[in-house]
Amino acid sequence: MARTMAVADPKSVSIKKKEEEDLKKRNQELEKELKESREREEQMRKELQKIWQRLRVAEDAEERLCSQLGELEAESVNQARAYNAHILSLTDQLSKANVPVNNHRSPAPISIL
């Protein structure tokens, strides 16, 4: 029985080595992209946390402002009512003060000519 030896074709070995090198290079590129992607993801996560915190602060400030606005509106209504009552009181006083003046007028106007 004759032994057959598989002889590797130098061209085929060279092609396989080239493919292997290309695969290794592609794998390194993919690993690099994955690392960069994870770093971007972590950076975005941190930025999202900061934005979330600012949102909470803004919402708290909005609540305080709404509360203050409600208090100011109530105060302005009370002031408007008091002002209106004061106007009515002054109007009443003025009308009472005019009654005696109208009753004591002389019937004929005085002529200076």
How does this structure look, described?
By secondary structure, the protein is mainly alpha-helical. It has one helix spanning 10-103. The chain is rod-shaped, with a radius of gyration of 48 Å. It starts with 9 loop residues before the first helix and ends in a 10-residue tail after the last helix.
Secondary structure layout plus pairing:
Elements: H1 10-103
Distance between the termini: 164 Å
Uncertain segments are none
Mean pLDDT: 88
Q: What class, by secondary structure content?
A: mainly alpha
How many β-strand runs?
0
Measured by DSSP, the beta-strand proportion falls in under 5%
Give the key terms.
113 residues; mainly alpha; 1 helix; rod-shaped
Task: Give a quick summary of the entry.
The protein contains 1 helix and no strands. Helix content is 83%, strand content 0%. The chain is rod-shaped, with a radius of gyration of 48 Å.
